[in-house]
Inverse folding.
């Protein structure tokens, strides 16, 4: 399904992209088409039942059942499998490495405390919901007591990884683009930001996001669409960074 | 939404384009949006920007995970102990069911008990008033010396009236509050108090045998003052008392169920508020 630039605009309507959540999650998306030099990601829901996903889901549920019976190693296996995804998700909601780590740890604590409340379905979604709720708690507190946004991008000790063969110029461009986008995201109301991240990055659809955020589907749609417009407006001065 | 954010460009609806990108348009809106993209180069550029921004958002780098999040045995013991401290029925998985059942039982009990008292009890008061009071008088006659207790005016009539559903005790209540008695559904003969039953001779004997009572009765506590004592002794009053006890019990059950259902979320919400 084409999705890129105007030629593929109509295809967007029927394509629900599951974006690469992070570099480490590109494996959950399928790149099957190219428009120009850009890979086009078609719909490939991570939770949708491919054989591997279905197997993973069964394993997760079995691990939860074992953990409910008191087996800590079963729960830790669950943690090992999902911690990268949860950290990548939370880091985009709370872009501070230490705070994101605390949120993820608290989410796993909460999951362990409430193992018996798992009602079936996707373990990944269940854990994501817990993590997003924990992140929103932190966001509310940050809203009251604003701190320096995006310390990671002000911190020169960590820079986004670049392709080994990338040109220095393209590395600088990518870094600058990420910095600008991150600042623009941080200026969004966190409700809009969370919805956009869950939709564009983590690949949840509208009803799933509504369930995670405890709001109506229409509210989710509105937050995403209006958030996009606000982002575009915030990045007006940096448009060229995104048009390369 | 930020009010400064433009949602139109040259009269073109940018929100429509954002919704197009999100796949959130019906057929007619989609045609309109595609028409914009076919005719307006600025709209094309705008749509391309939306797409590029979404793509860049998905590709935002994530730093390496700073630590491993697996739980230690100490963590598990601490969290498990916190979970075990709760009684089984208060654990999250059972709390809702348990609280819901309690609240439902309590509500049903309140409705049944209150409804029975309000309709059955009140109806009984008006239709069989005379026989009730006859029986009260007979009880009192049997009680004899209890009549002296009638000297103390009692607020029972007003409280009975306020209960409504337990107004059946009103005939036995103080005639010093005739208005309350009549408002409680008690038929009065002259507005001065409940209808006076034909006084059994035994009662007269009590009255005459107790000068103090007679004096107080004559000084304005009412000719029916003697009926006040029957409240705690008559079978119908005892039945009504039991109904009140049941009513209160069911109300407590309902309240407990609601508390089990709602308190944890309220506490959690308050906790969030205080943390923020």
């Amino acid at each position: 399904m084409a999705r890129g630039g105007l030629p593929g605009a109509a295809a967007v309507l029927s394509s629900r992209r599951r974006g690469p959540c992070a570099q480490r999650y590109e494996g959950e998306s399928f790149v099957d088409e190219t428009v120009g030099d850009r890979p086009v990601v078609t719909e490939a829901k991570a939770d949708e039942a491919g054989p591997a996903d279905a197997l993973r889901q069964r394993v997760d549920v079995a691990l939860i059942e074992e953990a409910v019976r008191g087996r800590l190693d079963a729960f830790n296996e669950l943690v090992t499998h999902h911690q990268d995804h949860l950290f990548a998700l939370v880091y985009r909601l709370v872009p501070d490495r230490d705070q994101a780590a605390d949120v993820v740890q608290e989410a796993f604590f909460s999951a362990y405390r409430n193992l018996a409340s798992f009602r079936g379905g996707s373990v990944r979604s269940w854990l994501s919901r817990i993590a997003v709720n924990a992140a929103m708690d932190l966001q509310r507190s940050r809203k009251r007591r604003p701190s320096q946004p995006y310390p990671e991008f002000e911190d020169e000790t960590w820079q986004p990884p670049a392709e080994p063969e990338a040109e220095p110029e393209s590395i600088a461009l990518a870094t600058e683009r990420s910095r600008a986008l991150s600042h623009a995201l941080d200026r969004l109301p966190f409700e809009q930001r969370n919805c956009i991240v869950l939709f564009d990055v983590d690949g949840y659809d509208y009803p799933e996001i509504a369930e995670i955020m405890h709001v109506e589907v229409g509210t989710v749609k509105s937050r995403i669409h209006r958030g996009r417009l606000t982002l575009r407006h915030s990045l007006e001065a940096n448009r060229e960074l995104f048009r390369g | 939404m930020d009010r400064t954010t433009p949602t139109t460009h040259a009269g073109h609806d940018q929100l429509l384009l954002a919704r197009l990108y999100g796949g959130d348009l019906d057929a007619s809106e989609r045609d309109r949006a595609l028409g914009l993209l076919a005719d307006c180069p600025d709209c094309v550029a705008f749509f391309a920007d939306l797409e590029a921004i979404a793509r860049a958002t998905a590709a935002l780098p994530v730093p390496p995970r700073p630590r491993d999040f697996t739980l230690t045995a100490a963590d598990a013991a601490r969290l498990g102990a916190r979970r075990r401290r709760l009684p089984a029925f208060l654990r999250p998985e059972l709390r809702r069911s348990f609280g819901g059942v309690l609240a439902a039982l309590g509500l049903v009990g309140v409705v049944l008990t209150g409804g029975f008292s309000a309709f059955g009890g009140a109806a009984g008061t008006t239709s069989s008033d005379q026989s009730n009071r006859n029986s009260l008088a007979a009880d009192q006659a049997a009680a004899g010396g209890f009549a002296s207790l009638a000297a103390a005016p009692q607020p029972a009539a007003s409280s009975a009236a306020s209960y409504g559903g337990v107004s059946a005790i009103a005939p036995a209540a103080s005639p010093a509050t005739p208005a309350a008695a009549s408002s409680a559904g008690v038929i009065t003969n002259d507005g001065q108090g409940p209808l006076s039953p034909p006084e059994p001779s035994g009662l007269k004997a009590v009255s005459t045998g107790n000068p103090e009572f007679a004096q107080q009765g004559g000084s304005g506590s009412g000719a029916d003052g003697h009926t006040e004592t029957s409240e705690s002794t008559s079978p119908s009053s005892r039945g009504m008392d039991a109904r009140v006890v049941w009513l209160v019990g069911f109300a407590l059950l309902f309240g407990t169920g609601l508390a089990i259902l709602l308190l944890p979320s309220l506490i959690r919400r308050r906790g969030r508020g205080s943390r923020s």
